[in-house]
Model the fold of this input.
Amino acid sequence: MSFPFRVFSCVCLWLLSVLFLLPTVGKALASNTSDRETRVAVAANFVPALRALAETFEARHGGRIGIVVGSTGKLYAQIHHGAPFDALFAADERRPALLEKEGRARPGSRFTYAIGRLALWSPDAGRVDAAGRVLDEGRFRHLAIANPKLAPYGRATQQVLEAHGLWQTLRPRLVRGENVGQALQFVRSGNAELGFVALSQIQRPGQTVAGSHWVVPEDLYAPIVQQAVLLTDNPLAADFLHFVQSTEGRDIIRSFGYRIP
Done:
């Protein structure tokens, strides 16, 4: 066999081996990439805290935490329709429990990450007093709330207004958002002078809350027990949920005004 032919044969064998290996290498690379990315669905109230958690986690462990925001009810429906979420941070305990019961969540992954707190807030200093008497006095045209049918913070708001005997009286003034994030935007944009929001949306670690607010006593509404659950076997999502439950993760959540169970 001549030397040029031997070289040609070796090159051909090398090319064939590369062609056979490419699919395996491609699958391995794709798997490695997906392991370092995750899509986390989160109720609107928890977005500021989750972003802080994600930034700390990514800086420490790498990877990318993609965040998808919505009302708990809408996110639950999207999961039923096949939305590619790896984990859910709900604003209640009912939907994560249902997902677990339906076999859509990883068994044993459900946990309570926070107890939500409701606040009445206005960007105007002095508009909201520390006892919430502004509701009875009616010195406003519009009051923003989250939709009670979709959002746990909306249900809590309805309970507070009912406890004050104001639910029917104030209904013509209510501006309803799909979730508590939209309720906050209605107030920020001036479409409502004040609104019921999550305390976590207006409280930042080490900062004074802008405007004026009333932290609603928790005995006026049913506890807002917020649970998270793992939906897939994505390793990064599992690691992130473990971090959220760590001492460092719980301290971050507490700094946004939540109670920790």
User: Anything to note?
Assistant: Residues 116-220 form a domain with the D-Maltodextrin-Binding Protein; domain 2 fold (CATH 3.40.190.10). The two ends are 78 Å apart (CA to CA).
